[in-house]
Design goal:
Strand order of the largest sheet: 3-2-1-4-5-7-6
Order of helices and strands: HHEHEHEEHEHHEHHE
CATH architecture: 3-Layer(aba) Sandwich
Distance between the termini: 30 Å
Helix content: 25-40%
Shape: globular
């Protein structure tokens, strides 16, 4: 599934397109008919690759907490960057990337072939959570990174996810964390505190996105409690950092520019005129103060993983 604007990454949000279309870079969009996947697929893949250190730490943490799984399912996989990391983390496992967008799954299959794991890598196209019914057998580890919040009834979706776990299997849910940061509080022009004000606008956008989903249900985002309500036993939560200090790489600059461009497209008319002018300077590649050129640009992000097990 393609996320709506943030998060990267394999999973595209901030605000969400998948990530998740609207602000930010980020895992699932309701209407994908207007997306040029020939252009967007490589961008999503590149963004997910930027976040690889964060994902590697999260997967290493998962690997220490369970035995080698037979089947790993990435629910909302996008172009398969994380799914392929699972294949590397668990060399004895079969990995299935699940997404609603076939062109992204084609990229996932191509990536698996390049990395030499195609013999134990599969894909499944369809909408979550219903498509999980097409799995050949229950998952020992089901990973859902920033895909759940694109489903209207999150409680029902978690129950469906839990129903496709093998006894003793683990559901790993990446939801929450902290808004990404790219810039100092004072960037030398405009009013200081720009990203904090962006957070407010993006949060309001996210609430509208959630309200527009089919059959949406308001829920307090107490993920361990929701996992328990799905019949699972919560086993831990941990937050993982992506810390890419200045000076930024070209890939980090491209990610930041894409994030801010989507934000401008989605909520630019809601910004204070001064903040909009500042944002336009940040996106102007000819401006020395833009994210394309400024020496103090960095990427700092925090994503939280919640785990729960199906009773034996």
């Amino acid at each position: 599934m393609a996320h709506a604007p943030e998060q990267p990454a394999d999973h595209r949000h901030e605000p969400h397109r998948h990530e998740h279309g609207a602000p930010g870079a980020g895992h699932h969009r309701h209407d994908t008919t207007d997306i040029d996947w020939a252009e967007t697929g490589p961008l999503l893949e590149s963004q997910a690759e930027l976040f690889t250190p964060l994902y590697e730490h999260a997967l290493a943490w998962l690997a220490k907490r369970q035995t080698e799984p037979g089947l790993v399912v990435d629910a909302g996989s996008g172009p398969g960057v994380v799914a392929c990391l699972f294949a590397d983390t668990f060399p004895g496992a079969r990995v299935v990337a699940v997404d609603g967008n076939e062109p992204l799954l084609e990229r996932a299959r191509d990536r698996a072939a390049r990395l030499g794991v195609a013999d134990r890598f599969g894909t499944l196209a369809g909408e979550l959570p219903e498509v999980l019914g097409d799995l050949d057998y229950p998952a020992d580890l089901l990973w859902a990174s920033r895909s759940l919040h694109h489903l209207g009834d999150q409680r029902a979706a978690l129950a469906a996810f839990a129903g496709h776990l093998a006894p003793g299997g683990t559901l790993a849910l990446m939801e929450g964390g902290l808004p990404a940061r790219f810039l100092p509080r004072d960037i030398g022009f405009g009013r200081p505190g720009l990203q904090a004000r962006f957070d407010v606008v993006e949060s309001e956008w996210f609430a509208r996105m959630r309200a527009s989903l089919p059959d949406t249900v308001d829920e307090a985002e107490d993920w361990p409690a929701l996992l328990a309500a799905a019949g699972l036993k919560p086993t831990g939560s941990r937050t993982f950092l992506l810390d890419l200090p200045a000076p930024a790489t070209d890939r980090a600059r491209a990610y930041t520019a894409a994030h801010l461009f989507r934000l401008r497209e989605a909520v630019g008319d809601e910004l204070d005129p001064g903040d909009l002018a500042t944002l336009d300077r940040l996106l102007d590649a000819s401006d020395p103060g833009s994210v394309h050129r400024r020496p103090d640009l960095f990427v700092l992000a925090a994503h939280t993983v919640h785990t729960a097990a199906r009773p034996l």
